[in-house]
């Protein structure tokens, strides 16, 4: 079997393990996947200038971020339905992140609830990602639950007002609610390790996996139609909602999906603690600029007022260093930990994270930097 030495190896292993519909859902972008290619191109074209003969004994990635200490400036990004990648996948991700010394952000649309994840990963630093539901009282109730589980950092996703146009999901019959078709049934049958190791384990315990946080009275198994109106994502979300959330949430508040300087400034004015400069991994809108193109102007405009994080397109440790050199305080990883989880469960997720850290460390040695602040501004 092929050794797992880089992100692509993990991705290939995940492709073998997961049904095609699930693999594509994680791997691909939106529409013609222009944004996805642009992400890669924007990172590939950045170069970092080394300082030679700096004589540092070792590198340190120890980072203070939003009142927390991170061993490395990385965060496991919120990913919906990560629990379909491995049985109890979200808890496994949380434990893997905890062992590496970084936070994990739980999605509103996780399979496993934040309470169960907390029980399974008592030492993990859990952040909570919010998709604001139309019913604000239910939304507030969800935040209460997250807080009661020790989540101190709330990530409000601002870049997903409607469902993205992902044609491959429709062709594969992969959707929420999941409606089995001949094609999807054959797909699952052709991946017996996933069928037995993931789906069957859910079916034998709690039944067909669902969005775990959706309230009991609205919760529908994902094979059943329509999630109730009250818990639909609210496409009318606006800055007044951020004002409301700022009052409601006593912990750190992060707005995810910012690309425009003006929006970053508004987030700072409203007292947000951080933003994530993100193109949602190229999964939402196909004509978006890449975060690497937007970061420098945003950092210059608001860097002194709030923390600027970044994500999208990271496949190597050097990609992380590029975002950091552009001014990001930390970088979120979406698909990479999922590939690790698919390839080797909890140990695989941890291994992928450690691989990225090792790549970062070696690149820092080549660059002659002792810590992240020693990175020189990127050349283009
Ligand atoms: C399968 C999958 C599910 C995702 N679900 C969410 C989500 O529920 N909420 C959210 O804010 N972002 C979600 N994202 C976006 C990630 O948080 C992150 O912005 C993106 O994956 C970063 O790009 P990368 O995958 O290239 O690292 C998802 C991404 C993937 C791949």
Structural notes for this entry:
Strands 3-10-9-8-7-6-5-4 form an eight-stranded parallel beta sheet. Strands 1-2 form a two-stranded antiparallel ribbon. The chain is an alpha/beta fold. Strand 8 (274-277), helix 12 (291-302) and strand 9 form a beta-alpha-beta unit. Helices cover 43% and strands 11% of the residues. The protein has one domain: TIM Barrel, CATH 3.20.20.70. It has helices at 7-17, 20-27, 34-44, 89-100, 114-120, 136-148, 167-172, 182-189, 192-204, 239-248, 261-269, 291-302, 317-325, 335-367; strands spanning 63-65, 68-70, 74-76, 104-106, 126-130, 153-157, 252-258, 274-277, 307-311, 331-333. The radius of gyration is 20 Å and the shape is globular. The protein binds flavin mononucleotide (FMN).
Bound molecules: flavin mononucleotide
Q: Quote the distance from N terminus to C terminus.
A: 38 Å
What structural class is derived from the secondary structure elements? Answer: alpha/beta
**What's the alpha carbon Rg, rounded to whole Å?**
20 Å
Q: What value does the average pLDDT take?
A: 93
Largest sheet: 8 strands, parallel
**Helix proportion range:** 40-55%
**Order of strands across the main sheet:** 3-10-9-8-7-6-5-4
Number of domain units: 1
CATH superfamily: Aldolase class I
CATH architecture: Alpha-Beta Barrel
Shape: globular
* Strand element count: 10
State the low-pLDDT regions, or none: none
Proportion of residues in extended strands = 5-15%
CATH fold assignment: TIM Barrel
CATH structural class: Alpha Beta
| Helix and strand element order | HHHEEEHEHEHEHHHHEHEHEHEH
């Amino acid at each position: 079997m092929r050794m797992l030495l880089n992100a692509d190896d993990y991705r290939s292993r995940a492709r073998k393990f997961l049904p095609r519909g699930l693999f594509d859902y994680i791997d691909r972008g939106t529409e013609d996947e222009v944004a996805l290619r642009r992400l890669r191109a924007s990172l590939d074209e950045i170069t970092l200038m080394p300082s030679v003969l700096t004589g540092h004994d070792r590198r340190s990635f120890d980072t203070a971020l939003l009142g927390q200490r991170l061993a490395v400036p990385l965060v496991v990004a919120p990913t919906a339905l990560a629990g379909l990648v491995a049985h109890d996948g979200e808890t496994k991700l949380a434990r893997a992140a905890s062992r590496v010394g970084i936070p994990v952000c739980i999605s509103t649309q996780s399979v496993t609830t934040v309470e169960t994840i907390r029980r399974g990963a008592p030492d993990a630093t859990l952040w909570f990602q919010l998709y604001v539901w139309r019913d604000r009282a239910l939304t507030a109730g969800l935040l209460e639950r997250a807080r009661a589980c020790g989540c101190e950092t709330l990530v409000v996703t601002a870049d997903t007002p409607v469902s993205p146009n992902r044609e491959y999901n429709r062709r594969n019959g992969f959707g929420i609610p999941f409606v089995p078709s001949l094609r999807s049934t054959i797909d699952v049958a052709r991946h017996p390790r996933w069928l037995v190791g993931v789906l069957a384990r859910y079916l034998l315990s709690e039944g067909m996996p669902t969005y775990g946080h959706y309230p009991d009275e609205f919760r529908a198994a994902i094979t059943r139609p329509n999630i109730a109106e009250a818990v639909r994502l609210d496409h009318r979300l606006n800055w007044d909602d951020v004002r409301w959330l700022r009052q409601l949430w006593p912990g750190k508040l992060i707005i995810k999906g910012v690309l425009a300087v003006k929006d970053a400034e508004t987030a700072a004015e409203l007292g947000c603690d951080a933003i994530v400069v993100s193109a949602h991994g190229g999964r939402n809108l196909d004509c978006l600029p890449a975060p690497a193109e937007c970061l420098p102007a945003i950092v210059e405009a608001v860097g002194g007022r709030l923390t600027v994080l970044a994500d999208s397109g990271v496949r190597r440790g050097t990609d992380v260093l590029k975002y950091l050199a552009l001014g990001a305080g930390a970088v979120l990883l979406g698909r990479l930990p999922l590939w690790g989880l698919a390839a080797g469960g909890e140990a695989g997720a941890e291994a992928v994270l450690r691989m990225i850290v090792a790549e970062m460390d070696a690149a820092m040695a080549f660059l002659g930097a002792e810590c992240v602040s020693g990175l020189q501004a990127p050349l283009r």
